[in-house]
Fold these 4 entries.
Entry 1:
Amino acid sequence: MSDSQARAWLDKAETLREALPFMRRYTGKTIVVKFGGHAMVDPALTESFAADIALLRQVGMRPIVVHGGGPQIAQMLERLNVKTQAVDGLRITDEPTMEIVEMVLAGKINKDLVTALNKAGGTAVGLSGKDGRLLLAEKVQRDDGVDLGFVGQPKHVNTAVIEAIRDAGLIPVIAPIGVDENGQGYNINADTAAGAIAAALMAERLIMLTDVDGVKDKAGELVSEIRRADIAGLVEDGTVSGGMIPKLEMCATAVTSGVGAAVIQNGTVKHVLLLELLTEYGAGTLVS
């Protein structure tokens, strides 16, 4: 072995040693990860994500994956020539659209992600909120009276279903399809579903993987931590706008409900989960 090779291996050994305190900190802890955005449509990023989740499980953490699928749903609707419209980012979901949403989310996306996780060395099990009535849902009612169709929000999370899989050493992979008391399916925003699941499980961390690095200030610099009490002011002064507002509000609600902390990260950055959980620096914006 050359000197340069020896140094490289020593550097790797040192990295593992530095990660040990963080492995101990999170051993046995539940980590809910919302996987979405462009990372989901990039095979290399999906493969990297799956490897990181498998590693987290291997070192003693208990990851739970909740995934989205907006781009893939839009592609399938276009392919099948099904016309839809959205209001404030929520897709109006009639019965034919709901069938396609469920087919894409609980079918192809869920099973492709399960396959990637299993290939990476994990043992993953795919679920939707219909399985075991995992996500009991109710219809979203808007103040302006606009009917969104079968768009729902979590009313109750059946944690027993998730816990049985998690405690068996498996990795739950959950598609955000809910169901009401009558068996009607509902399309639930994946961020909202992840927040509700993390809160119900009292997770140590809720990690939201998006297409941006986190919240940035007016100078364009990443804000490493935001306190819940400061969110309203950041919205009022324009620092936070658009789609980041509901993400921050959901994170704040989850932390208020008992989640240890929530983090918004860039899912297109390889190994961003490991940076957050296995180093002292973290990544993204932490909501505390």
Note: Residues 152 and 188 are 5 Å apart (CA to CA).
Entry 2:
Amino acid sequence: MDVRSLAYLGIAVPDVDEWHRFATDVLGVPGERGDDGVLRLRLDERNHRVALRTAATSALDYVGFDVADDWALDEATEQLEKAGITVTHGTQEEADARKVQRLVSFLDPNGYRVELSHGQLWEVDRPVQPTRPLHGLRGLGHVVLGAPALSETIELYVRVLGFRLTDYRSKSLYFLRCNARHHSVAFASTDRQMLHHFFIDVATIDDVGWTYDLARSAGHEITAELGRHANDLAISFYLRVPGGFQVEYGTGGLDVDDATWVAHEFTVGDLWGHRRPTGDAITVAPATTK
């Protein structure tokens, strides 16, 4: 299967209005509230990357990935069904809400709704404009999810969806890619479903630093200080966002060459920094996969 990229996320949060203010004032991310009440955040030329709806509690509604075109979506559907996975064809209403041509969905071994789609609307005639001074927004980098069924999840993503394993840590945290980006999704061994964080990619280290200073001075909870990861080399910080999960805000991630890259274990999470004042790292449990 030829999955091309992480396309979008759908997230339920208790207070969409609070999220809109936070995105505008702290993250520098523009958003538009639709007639359906959903807040859609723009991070690049696409119509949106993150859709937030109101609910009693926070949860990941869906994670969406791109395939190349309509024929590729048909092929992906056939491959999923051959693997014994029940595929649901999205309604026109769902496609319109995601601004895609067509989509299908299925449940992964953890119960997350995964969507495959093609043709999401690109608004190149309406360049994304940060809501405060930044050199630029560069998109949705990755998402990290808790996986109670870690082994089965990695098998699905690698053997059926065609992702490649980039690296892993202690066989409890796995980083997977579907293009040159070091990872588009990562899974941690947990005892329940958990949206840990998604990554907002910005243009420069100054954008990261300015946002870090602003968030700190405004009293927002920094869950990991400025630092640089050892595996993907991103310079970033983490902060708590409305709804209780986290956003990683960073720049400078590693691109991988499929022709030469070899999957491997890494032993330290960071080259420097990323101190966690609250001790709130990803909580992982021992697990094994092939």
Note: The helical segments are 16-27, 70-82, 92-98, 150-160, 205-217.
Entry 3:
Amino acid sequence: MPTTDDDLSDVTREAPAWSGSTAVRLLIGVQLRKHREACGMDREQAGYTIRASPSKLSRMEAGRTGFKVRDVADLLTLYGVSDEAERGTLLAMVEQANAPRWWQEYRDVIPDWFESYLGLEQDTSLIRTYAVQVVPALLQTEDYARAVISRSSPRPSPLQVERRLALRARRQRLLGEPDAHRLWVIMDEAVLHRRVAEPDVMDAQWEHLARMAEQPHVSVQVLPFTSGGIVGGIGPVTILRFPQQELPDVVCMEHLTTAQYLTKSTDVLPYHALMDQLSVAALPASATAALARDLIGG
């Protein structure tokens, strides 16, 4: 488990526009805070050096804003970090964090809050998600996704639908990297009975879901109707875990026009408990492929 959950607590209440590597940006913030606290300096003193307010420095330490190489270099000097190797590594990370990511070409169909999620999703090692209405985006076929996107609110134009489809297909590439990403899905049984498209589209979706569920890096469980009301009205939720042990898990709860991100251990742990409870109540992952294929032709 990560050991510095509270270092990034400021990230929980708003969705920043992260364009570079989110994990790298968060790591830089953690390191800057560690060095500042080690020399006993407050944010007001440190901010004065780079002509920044304490609130801006707080955003930097939380990874919620971009970094200038000059500012980071000045802060490292102020904090007494003189080792050239350490300075060089951190400044190289700044360059990496500022580099544009692939989704920049889709900015016309990505709201700011969702850009934040894309940065998190791409940098994770494990994605745990609970789906209550539709098949998760990473497991959707093109035609199923088109039906879902077309019915979203506000209604997108035909061009927007195709652009969002292209974005979704690009996101799905991360599941082609089994050594880097794992996906663990728990779906409410209602997802399997909600027909969002024509029968042939649904049949193709169920076959695709079955094949994905058979992949070693993908786990899909179904929460049956017979499990009762253990969820207590909780909607869809995703927990993102990063390969860097310094970073806390992030809980993402998507709403109609925004999203909420939680990183403080006191906020995140109840969602881990929820996911564990759902996993125990759900059918085993080994049963999912057969369940999905049983729906074909139905």
Note: The CA atoms of residues 125 and 243 lie 5 Å apart.
Entry 4:
Amino acid sequence: MLKIGYFADGKWSHEAFKKLILDKDISIKFICVRFDSEDNTLLNYCNQYGIPYLKHFNINSPEFFSELNQFDCDLFVSMSFNQIFKDSIINLPPLKTINCHAGKLPFYRGRNVLNWVLINDESEFGITVHYVDSGIDTGDIIAQKIYPISDDDDYFKLLEKAYIGCADTLYLAIRQFVENRVQSFPQSKIHELGFYCTQRIAGDELINWNQTSRDIFNFVRAICSPGPQARAILNNKIIKINKCYFIPGAPSYKGIVGAVVGKNGRSLLVKTLDSTIEIADYEYDGVIKVGDRFDCK
């Protein structure tokens, strides 16, 4: 029986829990949730299955270390948890601590990875289970699965894929511990450096129209709902853009970047750095006319 402590939050962790709780070779000794948010689903799971429900503002504190030590876990598992594990907690269980990350490590370390892979026009994204070490998403890789990205995908669709993919990949990795067949390897075997993605903040959602149509298409789909959605300024008013279409074969020509050059029903055709793009799903309080110009400053 593998005894695990589960540091978890959100739908990512819910899907994985459903798999873990059904495995008779795995015992979840506690669930520790984020201190700064509520997760009633995990609380209900704890009540349903008699699992201790923990929450602490500093998981690395001496008093919390003592509390965790009493559970005698073999392995700590992190899924969408938001505190940094220090060495004392990482090394407390004999099998150490692992994390599931929705990125193809050693690339796409850090935050908002699903947004960044779309912004970067990637053709695939990865889900990685790795050992936790003193760095950020830098530990040895235990399991990794790759998923394709098509032009039909956006942030919402990638999230849905990742919820299930993270659960599947994490469960497969934990089964390796159950069966004593873990074969991890350093991230440097894939690439010596990799790269890190910075957390996106308010203001990062503004469209830069001085980009190609492809770049703008990727940007809009990368932060569509349930993300913040792309924003722009038109006639001194904010327009919120949730969906646009890349137009294959659209002529490339010089013109006024950010100008509305056509309308198709409610959809707008906007001049970009190279061609035109169709803005299909948006919120705007006002009338938009051909010839209007988006603020490109």
Note: Residues 2-197 form a domain with the Rossmann fold fold (CATH 3.40.50.170).
